[in-house]
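User: Hi! Is it possible to get a structure for several chains at once, not just one? Here's what I have:
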Amino acid sequence: MNLGNAFRNVRGRIQYGTLLLSVVPMLLVGLLIGGLAFYLARDSLHERALQQVVTVRVDKTDRILSYFNELRDQTLLLASLRATVDAVSDLSAGIGAVSAQVPAIQSRERMQRFYNGDYLQEYAKLNAGASIDVKPFLEQLDDTAYALQYQYLADNPNPLGEKSKLKQADDSAYGKAHAAYHERVVRFVTASGFPDVVLVDASNGRILYSYAKRIDFGTSLSNGPFAKTEMGELFRQIREGGKPESFVLSPTRQYQPNFDDASLFIGVPVFNENRLSAVLITQVPFSQVNRIMTFDSRWKDAGLGDTGETYLLSLDDTLLSNTRSLTESPGEHSEFLKHIGTPEAVIKVSQAKNSDIGLVRVVSRAGEAARRGETGAFNYNDYRGEPVVGAFAPLKVLERDWIIVAKIDQAEAFAPVNSLLRDMLFAGIGILALTLLVSTYFSNRLARSVNGPIDTLQSTIAKLSAGDLDARTRMPPNDELGELGSALDNLLDERVATLAAAARENEQLNQSVIEIMQAVSRLSSRDLTVKVPVTTDVTGAISDALNFMTGQTAQVLRNVNDISNQVAQASGRVRERSASAMLVAAEGSREIEQASQELSDAALALKDIAGQASQADRAAEEAILSTREALNSVRETVGGISASRDLIRETEKRIKRLGERSQEITTTVNIIGNIAERTSMLALNTSMQAVAAGEAGRAYAVVADEVKRLAEGARGATQQISNLVSAIQSETIDTVEAINRAITQVVEISKMAERAGEQMRSTEEKTDLLVNSVRSIAETTSLQSRASDTLQARAQQIRLSTRQTADELAIQANETRNLDGYANGLLDSVRVFTLPAA
Amino acid sequence: MSNPTPILAAASGSAAEPPLVQTRNALRCGIRLQTSGGSLPLLLPADRPAELRRGMAICSVPNVAPWFFGMANLRGELVPVFDLLGYCGLGRTTRQRSSELLLIGTAASAFALPGTGEPEILQLSEDGAGTHTAPAQISEFIYNAWKGVNTHWYDFDFDRWLLQLSRGENPLPLPFSPSQTELSS
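Assistant: Yes, the chains can be modeled jointly so their relative placement is included. Here is the combined structure:
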């Protein structure tokens, strides 16, 4: 149901209004309380999370400091032992003779095999397949180092990582001193967990003893291959400033003899009767540091849930302990390393070593704050970009500055708040639904109690509107609405009685009006016999007036009818007279028309004859003139033909002489042609002679060729002339024959012209007679034509008068017909009325 | 009447050596002999004068080969008239008592060919042509060929041909027999 529609009636307003009044305050109160509770709980949890990470950080700080102090103390203790002091003396005394006892060729091969084999294989394994060039190391080994490494590394039958199992390589003084000291160191390492213990001769930097036996064994930290490493730097610091009970913690760096693993060393001096005899260096076990920082991989048990962790950083943000993700999900850890921009090579090495220490840099606000010397806890996005609650602090470990961070993801820290919010939401929805249900029931009941009487009133009014005047509410007057219904019923009874009386009066009046309208309707159909009933009401006067008007109109129309009949009868008689007069006039007009036509035809015939006679007269005169001119022409022609005949005869003689001349031309042309032929032949032969003469005759050949061409041109021209002369002769013969035929014809024509002249003279005489006769006919015909014209003019006058009379009679007949029509129209107009009998 | 010694090879007297090849672009005289299969264009010897004469009377010689038409009188010298086409079997020239003759050579070494028409003065083209297109009957006498307009002009070794005539290497012997001295000179 649409809420807008629901509020359009009283029931809806009552029902939904009461519902809203009960639910909305409750909802608002619920939301307010819920929101307040949520924020209070969130703050409380946030505070608790901060306290938790701070507690963890403080705890880890204490433990790390305590552990490193313990390592330092153990190192100092070992350095202060008499056995160490003696071992330095013994080892340094015996080390010089070691090289002499080692076979050179055998050791060289064995060392090469060790470095290029075992060492590089292990290096590649721990560095993702990477390799290094070991040749420089080997080349920098002096004889002593070479001999020591051969005995305790290359020739050591134990595998890499277990080289410390060799106690004594030979029976030399060094071997014995090594065996004696090694026993003590093994016990020491087993108790403390140091990966390596190194004794360095303070005088020359040579590593006299090494527990782990790496490739720095026997080398000098002053000038050997590893002098520039962190261990070399540590040695130099101790040698230069070492005092009893002093110590130095090196930075964490990758150390090549340790397969480039991140390494951290503690160095302490060894004094022999107040003289610095050696430097004792121990390697810090990062496994133990990791175990402390990672709770031995039991973060959950430590209260850090699924995301909490602690880690150590150097000041350049390099990790000094492993992250939780490396331990729990190495795959995701690699992706994370890519995400923070770690180079691919470093990621591979990290995977190979299963360690982040000294390799991975993580940057966060916590690290930055701690680097500035701040200690605290706040919310921030950690190195993964995840929002965390973290605690941080700078950490000074054996005088070296580090950073410690403890953190937990906000999502986990605030998980109870979300749970609380969810529970509150579900509870609120349930309470709201229950409240809605109860409120709906009661509001419905309330709406029904008010809406029932209103519906009754509404339906009663609807029935009345539909014309049901008997409709009543019949509501008991129990309350205000009941009394309203009773009052409405009484009012309706009174009004219905009044309306019935008025209806009866209206009915009667309507009847009178209908009767008047019926009478008017019959009047409109021209029935003047109608009588409207005269009643006593207001329509009685109207009916009476209508009856009087109808009677008067009928009387007037009867009079009009009589007069019209008389007019029609008079018009009929006039029309008959006009018709007979018109017939007579028409007959006369036709007779006159015919007579006039006949006169006109006769006049035309006479005019025609007169015209033709005149034309004949002129033609006859022209004929006489023409005949005379023709006669003269014939005479002149006869003379001309005679002259032509003489001229043609003279022409014939000349043409014959021309033919004779052309014969002479032919002879001459033949001579010329013969000369051209000979010239051509001569030129050809000359050309051939020139060709035979070779290059010398080339110019001569050109001339001969030109001469030949000229001769051929002359021969061609001669031939053309000959052809032309032949054509002229042929044409001359044909011309002479044609002239002879022309002379014959001219003689014939001359004779014919003379005969024509005689006949023309005879024709001239006969034509004179004919002209005189025609002239007489023309004059007579002209006189008759003029008389006929006069007669025709008079007939035309009579015809016009007759036609005018006929026209006048036609107009009169037409007018008479119109008068008759008017009378009939008047009768027809009156006849449409039904008149009462007179 | 002088001794008719028309066959004089180009001074060397050795018929085996063909005449020197004419250099290109040189002017040459050529004739077109009308064979039964068309025309046969031949170049006249380059180093020997030629002359065309009309109305020359040919005096027939009895009991000779049909290709030997007879002798003609050229300014007091008797000149043999040979039908080259008839000799080579490429056709036959109509024999007439008075006809047009092409006289090749001078004095005693002259000979005549009938029915050659007017010789053409030619300039040899840059490009030579193969002699293999020459008719087989005369191929042994053709030593060079040149491209002309729509045709090939063949250098005919008249000396060799005349030498062959003189040696009797033909169906019928010649009516004269040149001396060995003349041949060698």
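Chain B touches chain A at residues 26-29, 44, 46-54, 118-119, 121 (CB under 8 Å). Chain B is about 10% helix and 35% strand.

User: Great, thank you!
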